[in-house]
Amino acid sequence: MADTNGGLEIPSCDVCGKPAVIEQAYSGRILCGEHLAKSIRKKVAKELRKQLILRKGEHTTIFVAISGGKDSAALLELLVDIIGVRPDVTIIAGTVDEGIDGYRPPSLQCAIDLCNDLGVEFVTISYKDLGFEEMDTVAKLIPGMTAANPSAPSMPCSYCGVFRRQGINHLAKKVNADVMALGHNLDDMAQTVLMNMSNGDLERTLRLAPHTNTPIDGLPPRIVPLRWIPEQEVHLYAVHKNLPIHHEECPHARGALRWRHREMVAMMEADVPGTRHGLVRMADNVKDLRNQIVELGGHESRPSPPQECPVCGSMTSNDQCKACEMREMVKNELAN
Ligand code: SF4
Ligand SMILES: [Zn+2]
Ligand SMILES: [Zn+2]
After folding, report:
1. Which end of the chain is more exposed for a tag (fewer CB within 10 A), N or C?
2. Per-residue pLDDT tens over the stretch 101-131
3. Are 228 and 281 in contact (CB under 8 A)?
4. Cα(13) to centroid of ligand 2, in Å?
């Protein structure tokens, strides 16, 4: 039975008949908040069994990178729910403080509240602690940097992505993590696959998480248990579970290349439901193909094996890592 609301029909859940919150065009299912949450938990538990290999008699520490936003909040809540009681698993969460006024302080508080609610240990580190300038400063210096060096990235996120990655790696190392869990949803993954493919970037496609069977660059393998859950559904889940989440967007986000890919993927999905799943499956197929070739004794298509950055010691395929190169660029501009 469908509910009516001032003449507008609200579709009803195909399990229990209650008013639905979502109609999944890609699956044909119609679900209420509770049954959506159940189906998400089931999908994530299944994906987790594939991505996270817990060895008998060994303890596993999972570092969960959380931002205060919905995706990583849902991820942490689900991980605690699904494997939190296991005595052989420790879950620790952490946030990198980029130094973004108006955005980071309230979202950091959400991250802390979430960890308190879930009884999870929380760690944090700032760009300043890592030797980087705060993002608000970096954003101000960009016009000068691009004027001095035309190949310097012109978008704040290009710097921030590189710096945050170092921060997350630092925290994971600090807590002795065996595995790192990231909150990427289906839309994020599909956008990344499309971005890499439009760049012809096979290397990045091959390095895309999850890394269950192929640890990369000497870092703990990264897992992405939400990778089949659409962004909208992760949001509904976080709201349904009443998780403390920060809704506002980073003031530097606008204009990033990802935004255009976000629109493109949304358009393609609206035209042909299931496109996002298809893009992510495509990347999986490419990775499988590589693994088959390697098993057959073929050459890996990776160019030079990564080596340690002489400045910070993180793994890089260049003489110096990207983070150190950018740190220097920002320092030079600041000194000018
Ligand atoms: S939107 Fe860009 S600048 Fe803002 S936190 Fe994310 S990566 Fe950093
Ligand atoms: Zn229902
Ligand atoms: Zn370095």
Report:
1. N
2. 999 999 999 999 999 999 999 999 999 999 9
3. no
4. 5
